[in-house]
Structure formats: C-alpha cells, structure tokens
Amino acid sequence: MTSIDQAKAMAKRLRSGLASREIDIPHAIALELVAAQLGHDNWNVAAARLDGAPMQAIAFNRTIPILRTFDEAKSREFYLDFLGFTVDFEHRFEPGMPLYMGISRAGMFLHLSEHHGDASPGSNVYVPMRGLRDFHRELSEKNYNYGRPGIDSHPWADVMQVYDPFGNRIRFSQERSEAG
After folding, report:
1. For position 59, what pLDDT does the model report?
2. For 96-108, how does the pLDDT look when each residue is reduced to its tens digit (9 = 90+)?
3. Residue 107: left if φ>0, alpha if ψ -120 to 50, beta else—which one?
4. Rounded to whole angstroms, what are the CA distances from 116 to 37, 83, 111?
5. Under a CB-based contact definition with an 8 Å cutoff, are residues 83 and 71 in contact?
6. What tens digit of pLDDT does each residue of 29-68 get?
7. Calpha distance 47→146 (Å, rounded)
8. For residue 178, what pLDDT is reported?
9. For residue 112, what are the β-bridge partners?
C-alpha cells in the first residue's frame, strides 16, 4: 500500500518529469493526478486514506546498469551522438584518470565506467520500452558507421539490439501489448 509520503514523492517526481519537458503544473494538480492514479476521487480522500499507511522497509527506486568502456571519444560518439543520451554527470579522481559518467534518455539511466573493477566488458542490458519503431527509425537515419540495428519480431515482443564499441549489448524490447 502506498503511504502519504510515497504519494507526495510521486507528485514531486511527476512535476519534475513534466518540467524537464517544459510542462509546468502546480503542485496541487500533481497531487490530484497522483490521487487519481492511486484510485482516489481527489487528493483529500487520498490523504485521509493513505495517512498512517506504513512505509515498506525495503524499496528499490531504480536500477542503473554500469557498463565498462575503454575510450571516452568512442563512448561519446556511440552513447551521445548515436543513441541520443545526454550527460548527467562526469567524474575523474584527477586529470588523466579513468572517466565515470552518468547518462540518461527518456527515463533510462546508464553509468559508463573506464575503471577496471566496475564492470565486465561484454555485458548485456535488457530495456523494456515504448516507441521502439520510432527509436529504430531515428537510429537508422543517422547512418552510424559501426552498426545498423534491425528489429527482430518474436511472439512476445519486438527487439532491437545495439552493440557498443566495447562489446556491451543493449537489448531494447517492446512487448506486444505495448506495440499497439
């Protein structure tokens, strides 16, 4: 069961997500939308019913895979230029040291690390998504020299795989129920 604090946090994330798309809504509207999503008539009803609901002891916010990379320029070319991610942060312990970089796009977050012990080359990340065919079209139009991903259709999903320059694979998948 969702607690009042969790519902408020949902409203805050909703406003933040919309603001990143240049859609500003008042906090009260975000609360009303969250209440409706949780099945309540309005925020006042939700607040009365959710107040005192126990917080779960364990909650996972999101998973962020770490992928091993070896070359900053190739990482930027593949993840930023080709896949369209943006840089959230970059960290080096000092100039000339390995890069650790956080990137994101449309709710997907990845960490890329040149540090030896952070991840194994050749990892595989499975990404459920919507808009797979639009994403495929976008990538195809870029004519990336080192890969032209296709879409494989399965009874359960359409799947597009991309391989980064370091042997890591990202498997983008749109389930049949999401494909429309």
Report:
1. 77
2. 999 999 999 999 9
3. left
4. 44, 24, 14
5. no
6. 988 898 888 888 888 888 878 866 555 677 788 899 999 9
7. 53
8. 59
9. 67, 101
pLDDT of residue 180: 52
Global pTM?
0.68
- Residue 69 makes CB contacts below 8 A (sequence gap 6+) with 75, 99, 112, 113, 114, 164, 165, 166, 168
What b/e sequence results for 1-14 when a residue is b if at least 16 CB atoms lie within 10 Å of its CB, and e otherwise? ebebebbbebbeeb
Report pLDDT for 37: 87
Orientation of helix 4-19 relative to helix 43-50, angle to 10°: 140
- 100: β partners: 91, 113
Could you tell me if 118 and 126 are in contact, meaning their C-beta atoms sit under 8 angstroms apart? no
Q: Where are the beta strands (DSSP E) in the chain?
A: 66-68, 86-91, 100-105, 108-113, 124-128, 151-153, 157-163, 169-175
The CATH number of the structural domain formed by 66-179 is 3.10.180.10
